[in-house]
Amino acid sequence: MLRSTITTKLPQLSSAVFASSSILARNARVVPAVASAHMVRRSFNSNNRKKQNLPMNTVIKFVPQQEAWIIERMGRFHRSLEPGLQILVPIIDQIKYVKSLKEVAIEIPSQRAITQDNVTLDLDGVLYLRVVDPYKASYGVEDAEFSVSQLAQTTMRAEIGLMTLDRTLAERAHLNANIVEAINGAAADWGIRCLRYEIRDIHPPAKVVESMHQQVSAERTKRAQILDSEGSRQAAINVAEGLKQSVILQSEANKAEQINQAAGEAEAILLRAQANAEGIRRIAEAISEGEGGHHAVSLTVADKYVDAFAKLAKESTTLILPASASDASSMVAQALTIYDGITKKRGVSPEQLAAAASKK
Q: Which InterPro entries match (predicted)?
C-alpha cells in the first residue's frame, strides 16, 4: 500500500519540486538587482553609523567643542547639549544624534553632464558645508550629507545644461556660485548651509579637446598674420611719411634758396644802380667843373661808339652801318649832336646836370 501511494504521488512531488526550484531561481535573479540598486545607499549609511559611534549615557557627560548632542527623553526630542559639562537622567535620556558643527568637505564623484550645445562633460568637485541647526539636521532629513551630495550632483547637471561649453570652461566661478545658491535654497530645511562648491576637474571628449587645440592654433595664426600685416602697413606709412617730409623740406629749401637768390639779385641791381648813379654824378661834376670836360665826354662817346660797333661785328653776322662808318670824326660829331639835342629838349644845360649831381 505504501509502495502504491509513493508511486501515485511521485509525479506530483516532482512537479512541485520543479516549480519551487524555478521560483527560487527567479528570486535569485531578482535579489542581486535589488541589492545592487541599494548598495550605495546602505554602504553610505553604514559608514555614517561607524563614524558616529554614539556615546552612552553615564549621567555626567562632557560635550566637546564644536559638537551638538541631540537628547531624546522617552523617544521624544528633549534638548540639544552644548559644549561643556552636561548631566543626563539615566535610562530616560538617550543620546540619539551627535552632530559636528565644523566645516565638512564632501567629495562629489565624477559624473556626466550635457551642455547647452550638446557636449558631454565629465565633472567632479568638492562641496564644503556646515551644520547650522542640529535639530533640523537630525530630524529634517534621513541623511543630511548624502542628501546634500545628491542635490549638488543634480544641481550641477542642471546648471551645466544651461551653459555652453565655452562658458562652462570660462565661468567656473559663476557656475560655482549658482550651485551654492541652489543648494542653500533647497537645504534650508535640513539645517545645513553650503559654504562653497568647487568644480575640481572638467574633462571634455577627446575630439572636442582636439578641436579646441586646432581652434587655438588657428586663432594664434590669425593674430600673427594680423600683426604681420599691421607691421607692413605701419612700415609703408612710415616710408610715405618720410618721403612726404623730405619733399616738404626740399621745397622749403628751394623756396629759401630762391628767396635768397632774389634778395641777392635785388641787392646787386640796387648796388649797380647806385654805382651807375654815382658814376653819372661824377661825370657830370667833371664836365661842369673841368675845362676839358666837353672834350672828355666826346672822347668817351666816341670810344663807346667804336666799341659797340666792334661787339656788333663779333656777335652777329648781320651789320647795319651808317653811311659815314669809315669817318670816325663824323661819327663822334653825330653822337655829340644827339647828346646836345637831348639836353636841349629837356631844357637842361651841362652845368645844371653837374649841379644836380653834386647835390645828390
A: Band7/mec-2_domain, Band_7, Band_7/SPFH_dom_sf, STML2-like_C, Stomatin_HflK_fam
